[in-house]
Structures are given as C-alpha cells and as structure tokens.
Input
Amino acid sequence: MLAAGSVLVRDGLAWSDTHIFSPETLGGAWFDLSSGSLRLFQGLIERIAPWLWSYGVAPVLFVWAAPVFLILGFALVWQFRRETRRRFRPARL
Output
C-alpha cells in the first residue's frame, strides 16, 4: 500500500508540474528501479516463447501501477491478518 501511495504522489506531482496526467505504469516503475533486470527478464521470456512477451507480459506492464500495488497491498494485509481468538467463558449458573 505504501508503493501505491508513492505512485499516487508521483503522479500527482507530475500532473501539477506539467498539467498533463501521465500515470506511472508497471513497466515504467520497473525500468526506473532496475532497467537491467527488466531487459534480462524480457530476453529470457523472448527466448522461451517470443509471442508470450508481445501478447502476455508487455500488455501487463502498461497497466497503471497504483491500483495494482493497492490491490496487492490489500491482498497481503488480508492474507497475513491476525485472527482474533475468542475466549470461552462458561455460562454462569
């Protein structure tokens, strides 16, 4: 959820600076963080199945990053939530 917040702040600052809304994509965020690993991943996928990069992975990398990070954040919070234990109290007679 922090990643989604940072992407939203980045998008908001870019919009206020340029007055053009250009949201950060997953591929753009990955390229900014580590362009070498993105190129390595692309080469690996294209060696295995060239059609998979064009029709499977590349379209996913053009998705707006903020909602994806937000959904992943909520899924992780839900998955690792603490269960509340109910205490058994016997009925008073």
Remarks:
- The chain has five helices and no strands.
- The radius of gyration is 21 Å.
- The helical segments are 2-18, 26-33, 35-48, 50-61, 65-79.
